[in-house]
Write a structure and sequence with these properties.
single chain, mainly alpha, 2 strands
Length: 140
């Protein structure tokens, strides 16, 4: 995957340059990055556009070029359709409502300040961390 001819002649072992979603946060977001390769979290469209140095669409196109060394365009597009639909479904059905519930519990001080001493904190952690996206990342 790193050294094929369709990688713009660049050999890299950093597939992060070609990943179009980040599934690390509780709610997955497209992988627009700034000049320092940090994920852009700005919500205002004009400010966001000014910060983005490498957009998710460009990253996806680079990955599709790499994939096309072995797979047909229909296969690649079907994969991304399925993946995008899955991420959006997870975000809308589980991540956003779950985060809203946890934020409300914290705001109303229905959870203690100590993390993971109530069962719901573990349930939420397992839901977003293991079932959703952020495999291998620290809580919150």
């Amino acid at each position: 995957m790193s050294g094929n001819l369709r990688n713009n002649g660049k050999i890299t072992h950093d597939p992060g340059e070609r990943i179009s979603w980040t599934n690390r946060p509780m709610i997955s977001v497209v992988m627009d990055t700034d000049a320092d390769h940090k994920v852009v979290t700005e919500a205002d469209p004009a400010k966001r556009q000014a910060l983005v140095a490498d957009g998710w669409e460009a990253k996806r196109n680079r990955m599709k070029d790499v994939c096309s060394s072995c797979h047909t365009p229909n296969y690649i597009n079907a994969f991304y359709k399925q993946y995008d639909d899955f991420v959006v479904l997870y975000n809308e059905k589980f991540a956003k409502p779950g985060k809203k519930i946890m934020d409300a519990l914290r705001e109303q001080k229905l959870l203690t300040p100590a993390e993971f001493d109530e069962p719901i904190e573990w349930t939420w952690y397992y839901l977003w961390h293991h079932e959703g996206g952020a495999r291998g990342t620290a809580p919150r």
